[in-house]
Amino acid sequence: MADDEDRTILLIGSGPIRIGQAAEFDYSGAQACRALQEEGARVVLVNSNPATIMTDPEMADEVYVEPITPEAIAEVVRAEEPDGVIAGLGGQTGLNVTAELAEQGVLDEHDVEIMGTPLSTIYATEDREQFRQRMRSIGEPVCKSETIESMDQLEDAVETVGGLPVIARTAYTLGGSGSGVVDDMDELREIVRKGFQLSRNHEVQVTESIAGWVELEYEVMRDADDSCIIICNMENIDPMGIHTGESTVVTPSQVIPDEAHQEMRDSALKVIRELGIQGGCNIQHAWRDDGTPSGEYRVVEVNPRVSRSSALASKATGYPIARVTAKVAMGKRLHEIDNEITGETTAAFEPAIDYVVTKVPRWPAEKFDDVEFELGPAMKSTGEAMSIGRTFEESLLKALRSSEYEPAVDWTTVGDDELESRYLERPTPDRPYATFEAFERGYTVEEVVELTGIYEWYVERFERIAEAAEAAQDGDFQAAADAGFTNQEVTAIAGGEFNDTHASWIPAEQRDAPEEPAVETDGGEASSASRASSGVKASGGGEASGASRASSGVKASGGGEASGASRASSGAKASGGGEASGAGRASSGAKAPDGTGTTVAVVEAETSRRTYKQVDTCAGEFRASTPYYYSAREPPTGRGGSEVQVDRDVESVVVVGGGPIRIGQGVEFDYCAVHAVRALRDVGIDAHVVNNNPETVSTDYDTSDGLFFEPITAEEVADVVAETNADGVMVQFGGQTSVNVGEPLEEELRRRGLDCEIMGTSVEAMDLAEDRDRFNGLMDEREIGQPEGGTATSEAEALELAHEIGYPVLVRPSYVLGGRAMDVVYSDDELDEYIEEAVRVAPDKPILVDEFLADAVELDVDAVADGEDVLIGGIMEHVEAAGIHSGDSACMIPPRSLSQETLERVREVTLEIARALDTVGLLNVQLAVRDGEVYVLEANPRSCSTACRGRTPASAPR
Fold first, then answer.
1. CA distances from 59 to 30, 35, 695 (A)
2. In sequence order, which residues have a C-beta less than 8 Å from that of residue 698 and are 6 or more positions away?
3. How many other β-carbons are positioned within 10 Å of the β-carbon of residue 565?
4. Is the pLDDT of residue 566 over 60?
5. What percent of the chain has pLDDT over 70?
6. First to last CA, the chain
7. Most buried among 76, 152, 413, 819, using CB within 10 Å?
C-alpha cells in the first residue's frame, strides 16, 4: 500500500437512522474522517443520510450521497480507486456491504485492502457456529447452541440445548432483529421463521437461555502488535434476556465481585487476540453468582466494530474509540497515538474513572399506543441519554431527567396487583418509575428484587432515592439534593411549584393536575396522566391527588384498592425501617405537606450548590486540559471546587442540544447544533454545549470550548451559564427540546439576575408561532391565507368548531414534537376519541382544529433571517398529498408541479412570516397549495428536520 499521504481510504456510512442503528455511527464516522486526515490520507465517504454531519462536503475529501448497496459502492470504488476500506465504522450496514463487495470480488479486482479487522474475523463473529468453535478452542465458556437452516431442524435443536426456554438469534442483523427469549414452541416457530427472512445467510441459532444472569460488556482495543487494553466495562441493570441497547447501563460495574471482573477482563483480552481484531470491539459476557468467589460466566457475543456501546464507552471515559480505531487501521500502534485529553499519555493507557455513568434508553412509546413495549433481545429504543454523577443515585436521576420520557401512568389508579404484574414483573420502560412507586407504598427491597429480578444492590439505591424524597417532604432538602434531585424537583417534592421542563421522578402524592385543564372531557376535568407521570406539580397548586385518592380508598382500574392502601393498612415496613413512606401516611389520614412557603429560593438556601468536575480519562492522575465536564453537588466539606477551565472573561455562548434521539427529533438537530458551535468559533466566540446524548458529534470532547454533559432543564442550563459567565444562550438548534426550555430558562436567568440573553429569535416569537390563536391573528393582519380553524379548550368547543368547518378536520395539540397526536378525523365519534389522546399528550395545552385541505400540494420552505434580510435555502415539494407529516413524506427539490406565479407567492409568504415573527436565525414554513391558492399550515422559527436536506454533495458517476 502507498504511504500515508498518498493513500485513499474509503469510509462506508450506516445509511438512514433506524432502531438499532442510530447517530452513534455518524459520530464514529465523523471522528474517523478527522483521524484519517490527520494521518495524511485522502478520505472518500459514502453515505445516504442527509441529516448527518458525516455527509457535509467539508467532512471528507469526496462525499458521495448514495445508497449503501454493493452496486452503488462498487461504482464509487471504480471511480475513486481507493487503496483501502475500513469496514467497522459504519455499523452493521457498512459491515455487511463490505463483506458482500469482497465476496463479489470487487475489492480484489480493484486491489482494495480491508484495513484493520480482517474479513475472516467478521465472519467468525457473525457466524454463530464459527464463533462458538473459536471460543471453545481457547477454553472460553459459551452457551450450548445449535445453528439451523430449516424449520425441520428446530425441535432437535431445542432438545440439544436443554429444552425451553431458549434464545433464538439471527446472524448478520442489527439491534437484535429476529431474536427473542422463548418458552413456547409455537412462538419459537414464528420467531425462527421471521429470523430466516432477516438473516443474510438464512441461519438462526437456538441457544440455551441464560435469562436472569447479569449482563456485562467489555470495550476492548487492540493494535496490530497485539497490544490490548480494556477501555471500560459496562453492567446492565436489567438481567440477561434484554438487549443491552434496551437496558439501563452503568459503568463502572457495581455488583460483580472483583474476582469475577478480573476473570472476564482476562477473557476479553483472550477473545480479541484470538479473533485478531484490530481496533475497538465490544465483548458481551453473562455472569451469575454460583456461590464461588468469582461466580460463573459465559462469553455471549462479540461485535468486531464500533457500536452504540462504543459511543457510550467513549463518552463515559473520554477515550475516543472511533478515532483510535481509524488510526490503528492505518497501521498506528496504540503507544504511537496521543491521548488528546491529557496531552501526556497515549492510547495505550487504560482509562480510569472516578464517577458513575448511567445510560437510559429512549423509547417511542408515545408514537405507538398499540405497541406492547415489553423489552427483550430485539431493540425497540430509538436513542439514549447518558449522565455522569458522583454516586449511582445522582447519575440515575440525571439520566431519567435527561431521557425526557414520561410514563403515561397515573399511579393513583394502579392497585398493588397491577403494579406488580404489569409494571414490576414485566420489563418495560416504566419499570424504574414503578420501582420508586413500590417503595412509596412500603414494599421491601426483598419484595422488589423478587418481582423484578434486578440485583439487590441496585434496588437498594432506588429505595435510598425514595427515602431521600420522603426526607424532603419532612423538610430535609439536602438529602434529596445529594441523591440527585434538582432544586426545582426538591421544591415540588416539598409541596411547592415546579417551574421547569422535565423531572426525573417525584412521589405520586406530590403530583397535581392543573387547576383549570386546557381541554375538558365529558367527565369534567382533563386527565392528568401525562403531567402526573413526570411528577410535575402545576404552578396552579391544589391538593396532592395521590394522597387524597389513597386515603379515600378509590378503586384502581385493575381492581383492588388504589395506591397500596391495603399494604399500608397492614403496616408494611420499608427495608430501611419505619412505616411505609407514602401509603402508610395516606391510610392514617395524614396529608402531604401543603408546601406553604416552600419556594426554589428556600431550597437553594438550604442545599449545597452544584459544582463541575472534569472528565479526564485518568481519574486525576495526570493533568488534563479537556473541556469536558459533569455536575455534582458540592460535598459537605465545601472543598469540591469547580474544575472548569474555560475563560470566563471572553465572549461566550451556550448552545443547547436536542437530548436523546426519538421519532420526530433525530440527528438533524445535532447537525444544526454542531454547525452553530462551528460558526460561533469561526467568529472568535467561545461555544459551550449542554447535551446528554452519547451518540452525537455535539458531545465529542473537542467539538466545543466547553462540553457540559447535563440534563436539558432550565435549572441545569442556567447553572452552566453561571459557571461559564456566558453572554448568551441559543435554544433554536436542538429541536423541540431546546425550544421548550426557552421560556422557563428566560425566567430562571431573570430570577437569578444573570446577565445573559437568549439569542436569535425571541422566546416570545417562538411562543407566538406555537400559539394557534395568536398566530392566526398575525396571519390575518398580514392577509396571508390559512385553512379555516381555531383552538378548543373543551370538548364542546372542539365539536362546535368541527361542525362550523365541516369534516374532515385536522386536529392536534399545541406545543408537541414531530406531529405527535396529530390526526385527521371524519366524525364526532372520532373527535371524541381523539380528545382523550390529546389530553393525555398535552393536558395543559388547547387543541387545534383546522380545515383539512384534501388533495392539496404540501410544501416545506426553509429559510434563514437576520432580522431584516431573509434567505430562502430551499423549497421542497411533498410527493404525497397534504396530510402526511413532512418528516414522513417523500420530498423533491426543486418543486416540479407548481407554476412560477405560485412559487413567487410562496416566497412572498415566507418573507412576510419571517419578518412578522422578527426571525433571527432558522425558519421552517409549511404551506399547502390548492387551486392556485397558497395557505400557511404552520411556521417554526427554529431548526427542523428539513433544514439538512438542501445540501448537494457529489453523486457517484453513472
1. 7, 11, 18
2. 655, 657, 670, 673, 674, 677, 689, 691, 704
3. 24
4. no
5. 85
6. 28
7. 76
Q: What is the pLDDT of residue 586?
A: 33
Residues 6+ apart with CB under 8 A from 517: 525, 526, 839, 843, 844
Q: Which residues of 338-370 are buried (b: 16+ CB within 10 A; e: fewer)?
A: ebbbbeebebbbbbebebbbbbbbbbbbbbeee
Paired residues of 613 in beta bridges: 630
559: region left, alpha or beta (phi > 0 left; psi from -120 to 50 alpha): left
pLDDT per residue as tens digits for the range 335-392: 999 988 888 889 999 999 999 999 999 988 877 777 778 888 778 889 999 999 999 9
Residue with cell 389513597: 550
Listing from the earlier edge strand, what are the strands of the sheet with 180-182? 145-148, 204-208, 166-170, 180-182
Helices 735-752 & 667-682 angle (0-180, nearest 10)? 50
> Which DSSP state fits 561?
B
Between 591 and 113, residue with greater pLDDT: 113
Length of the chain: 958
Q: Mean of the per-residue pLDDT values for the chain?
A: 85
From 580, 348, 558, select the one nearest 463 (Cα to Cα): 580
Contacts of 314 (CB under 8 A, 6+ apart): 27, 320, 321, 322, 694
Instruction: Say what percent of the chain tops pLDDT 90.
Output: 59
Q: What nine digits make up the cell of 694?
A: 452519547
Q: What share of the chain is helix, strand, coil (3-state, %, to 5)?
A: 35, 20, 40
- Tell me, what amino acid is at 373? F
SS3 annotation, 378-417: CCCCCEEEEEEECCHHHHHHHHHHHHCCCCCCCHHHCEHH
CA angle 311–15–405, rounded 5-degree value: 55
Mean local confidence (pLDDT), 496-502: 93
- Name the DSSP class of 53: G
Q: How many CB atoms lie within 10 A of CB 851?
A: 19
Q: 772-781 and 763-770 are packed helices; what angle lies between their axes, rounded to 10 degrees?
A: 90
Distance of alpha carbon 470 from alpha carbon 474, whole angstroms? 7
- pLDDT recorded at residue 173: 55
Beta pairing partners, 386 = 359
Report the predicted TM-score, pTM, of the whole model to 2 decimal places.
0.85
Q: Whose CA is closest to 375, among 236, 216, 177, 242?
A: 242
Rounded-to-integer distance, Cα 456 and Cα 407, Å: 24
Q: What is the CA radius of gyration of the chain?
A: 28
The answer to whether the CB of 17 falls within 8 A of the CB of 667 is yes
pLDDT digits (tens, 9 = 90+) for 53-63: 889 998 999 99
The CA-CA-CA angle for residues 713, 718, 722, to 5°, reads 155
Query: For 690, phi and psi rounded to 5 degrees?
Result: -115, 115
Sign, Cα dihedral of 948, 950, 951, 952: positive
